[in-house]
Structure formats: C-alpha cells, structure tokens
Amino acid sequence: MEFETRAIHDGQSPDTQTGAVIVPVYQTSTYRQSAVGKHKGYEYSRTGNPTRHALEVVLASLEEGKYGLAFASGVAATTAVFSLLKSGDHVVAGDDIYGGTYRIFEKVFKKWGLSVSYADVDDPDSFEKAIRENTKLIWLETPTNPLLKIIDIQHVSSIARKRGILVAVDNTFASPYFQRPLLLGADIVVHSTTKYIAGHSDIIGGAVVVNDAALYEELKYYQNATGAVPGPWDCWLVLRGLKTLAIRMKAHEQNAVYLAEYLSGHPKVARVDYPGLTSSANYKIAKRQMTGFGGMIGVEIKGGREQVDKLFANLHLFALAESLGGVESLISYPYEMTHGSMPVEERLKRGITDNFVRISVGIENKLDLKKDISAGLSAI
Ligand SMILES: *Cc1c(COP(=O)(O)O)cnc(C)c1O
User: Fold this and answer.
1) Which residue out of 195, 220, 347, 350 is catalytically annotated?
2) pLDDT digits (tens, 9 = 90+) for 99-143
3) Which of 44, 139, 246, 343 would bridge with 4, disulfide CB 3.0–4.6 Å?
4) Is 195 in the active site?
5) Is the entire prediction scored with pTM above 0.85?
C-alpha cells in the first residue's frame, strides 16, 4: 500500500471488541493477568501500551522499517540511541545539528567517556576522515539544522557499512514523507515527532525506527529500562496527526518554495537557504535522496540583531517561537534560541550568525504569508 494509506491504516485496525474505528486511548498503567505470566501481551505501560504500540507500528511502516519505538521526546529517542554505546566509544556527527543533540553529546555523554568529532557537512569526505578505530556511530541530520544543507546518506552509509559502524539519521526536518533513510542504507532513524509527524504543535514526542531485530531488542530494552516513554494521550495525538502527514507536507513544501523564491529576490535579504532552490548548492543531492524539499527556510537578513528584532516585532502571522513543523508558521532565532547552548565561537564557526533567522513555513494561505513577511521586512 502507498504512504497515504499506510499512514491511516497500518497498526490501526478497528477494535476487535467494539468495532471502534480509531485506536482508543488506553489510559491504563497495568493489565490484569489471568494467572502469573498469563496476559494478552501487555503487563505494564512503561513496557508496552496498545495506543503506543499502534503508533510504533505505523511509524515503522512509514519509514519502511521493521520496528518502531516511541519515546517521550526527540531527545529521549536520541539518548536511547547513544545508550547503545559504551565508555571509550567514538561518534562522528555532522557539524550542523540540533543544539539539543550537541548538548547531549557535550554535557551528558562526554563525561561518561564517549568522544565526539564533528565533520564538516559541506565536505562529503569529512565523515570518512573523522572515523577512528573506536568509532561506533555516525550521526547524521539532514537537512541540517539550521542551515538546511544536505548530507549524502547513501555515501556516508556505504563508508560506515564497510567498517561495521552504525549510521543514525535524525529525519525530523524531512519527515518520512520526503525522506526514508533506511532505504538509503542507514541503520537507525530518529525523530522528534513533536515536529512534522504530530504536526500541530501540541505534544512533545520522539521515535526510533530500525530494521535489525537485535538492534531493536537492545533499544527496546533501554526504552523500558530508562523509561522515557510517551503517555497514551500523546501517542493518540501523534496517530491523529500522522493521518494527514502526506497532505500537510505537500502544503508546507508548496508554501516554502513560494516564500523561498520571493525572499531570494528581496533587497533586505542577504541569503536564503532552501534546498529546493535550483540555485542552491544542495539542490542536486536533495533532488536525488529526497522526494520533496520540506518546509524549512533559513534566511540571512542584511544587518544584525537590530534589523532582526525589527523584523520579529513587525510580524503577525509568523510567531517568534522555538520548534517547527506545525500547521502554523513560526520564525526563530537560532543564534540565541535552538543553538543558544552552543559556545558563541562554535555558533559563528558554523554560520549561525546574529542576522540569521529560521522559518518553519506553515500551511496557511501563501499570499497571507508573503504579505506578512513583506510587511516585516519593510519595517526594517
Ligand atoms: C526538536 C528536534 C529534536 C529534539 O526533539 P524534542 O522533541 O524537542 O525532544 C531533535 N532533532 C531535531 C532536528 C529537532 O528539530
């Protein structure tokens, strides 16, 4: 079955007892056993819950993987993947990643004896060069955050495979609708379901999808043992959001292409980062490995903090806020918001400057969005 159909039906058959078409919210912590160890597949909701199970099945299906695991947040999903490593192991990550992922590496796992090298996402060979004898995991985020560069998943995965190194891809920005890393050779897909997958800015959630049974068992063990699981209500909201993922992603992309083109020609704009612009250095590779370019745009405004503040103060539809991927348009300031936990010199080195803004283009009418951003830019 095709993506749109699987999003609505996989893992979500009508309830056998009542016929309910929608998977119920199983708001229960525990399950009655008919005798010790005799149960219907569920014992305790940290270990497993039917609403969460439905979500895990459909997420695996949409990522073209065998096994899905849902987490309480994207960073909890990331933490579960890092739990596969042990003291002395080395990780290679791209140098343009979500600030919270950088923080987990630097502030949580480093003190437990993991080391991390950051590879230049502009140089396709930098990941190979950064590999050491003790490298166990390559962490990719593509499109990158916040600069929207594209890393060749197939290229990096083939290098890693030869050396027995796992490749994890944070697929949050593309969503499974536009990119399926497991088909490109990655071993692990990670999501912040908070973003496009749930799609309505109303829950925090995360997910991991894999194909390998042993890897799944190990991750499932950490999911249960460390306990960062989502509650059934949140799982239900993600399930509801997923049903419209395909049509939402198409709408996000149409609006993003329109705004990226408009902004590219604007006199107050110094640079637009959007892989869907044919002028983008990342266009070719994006076209090859993704089925769409997504709804995120990076914009460098001419000037500095003062000009950016003027823009923010004069926007009405674009809310100044953290996060992305909801139906409503958001604008953020990575320099102090998502990437504020990164040392200033690191931010500047990576191109996250004080005149850079990140836009999550919503699915409002594109003409209203253009009018709003145009008014904001005129006020500078
Ligand atoms: C938001 C985000 C995360 C973290 O997810 P949470 O749900 O906020 O914990 C990880 N990666 C990317 C790319 C994100 O945008």
Assistant:
1) 195
2) 899 999 999 999 999 999 999 999 989 999 999 999 999 999 999
3) 246
4) yes
5) yes
